[in-house]
Design goal:
By secondary structure, the protein is of the alpha+beta class. Helix content is 64%, strand content 9%. It has a single domain, classed as Up-down Bundle (Butyryl-CoA Dehydrogenase, subunit A, domain 3). InterPro entries: Claudin, Claudin_CS, PMP22/EMP/MP20/Claudin.
């Protein structure tokens, strides 16, 4: 059962890695909203971290990369950097944590080192979750705030895109992977160090009685 939990954590970690890559590459972070005077539904504008795409009915989707990083809003600039960091952390977390699980032969002779490798991988999963959560939450807040802000014109309002939902799901998967590995580290560390239990008063008296009895029998054997 314990090995199955570690295997489950590794599967979740790999799914989280794929989720971060997909969310980073998807252009559907912000989608044009059709409200008020903006009733042109023949064309949908998608805005991502790397490009903007226009999808027209019965016409192939056309995408254009951003020519300058500075034209992006602040939340999108932060999202581009943090999502790239999240992908790197998730990738190395899968490699590091994979060396720390029981089913691998890496560090098999060094139990303490294997446990440390496991907890390092778990922390990297949690850091990757944090790096994904910050841009996703920031972008979600900005989209909702502008959507209900009466000072923002209808043409500049957006809706939450599919990449945001993928990002939220990825955060949950990475968090679950990190928590499971940390929970597995605690019993493994206790087993490695050993847990010392102080004897009770009754146990101490029993030990003293056995010691006296053994000493008395030893003296009797000497006389014989």
């Amino acid at each position: 059962m314990r090995g199955k939990l570690e295997t489950l954590a590794m599967v979740l970690g790999f799914v989280g890695l794929v989720g971060t890559v997909v969310a980073t590459a998807m252009p559907m972070w912000r989608v044009s909203a059709f409200i008020g005077a903006n009733i042109i539904v023949m064309e949908t504008i998608w805005e991502g971290l790397w490009m903007t795409c226009a999808y027209q009915t019965d016409i192939r989707m056309q995408c254009r990369q951003y020519y300058s990083w500075l034209i992006l809003p602040p939340e999108m600039q932060a999202a581009r950097v943090l999502m790239c960091v999240s992908v790197i952390l998730a990738f190395f977390a899968v490699l590091v944590a994979g060396c720390g699980v029981r089913s691998t032969n890496c560090c098999k002779d060094n139990e303490r080192g294997k446990n440390i490798v496991l907890v390092v991988g778990a922390c990297m999963f949690l850091l990757s979750c944090l790096c994904t959560m910050i841009p996703v939450a920031w972008t979600t807040h900005t989209i909702i705030w502008n959507f209900y802000n009466p000072e923002v014109i209808d043409a500049e309002k957006h809706e939450i895109g599919a990449a945001i939902y993928v990002g939220w799901a990825t955060c949950g998967v990475l968090l679950a992977a990190g928590v499971i590995l940390i929970c597995r580290y605690c019993p493994r560390q206790q087993k490695e160090e050993g847990v010392y239990y102080a004897p009770t008063s009754a146990e101490r008296q029993s030990m003293v009685h056995l010691e006296r009895k053994s000493n008395g029998s030893f003296k009797t054997m000497q006389y014989v």
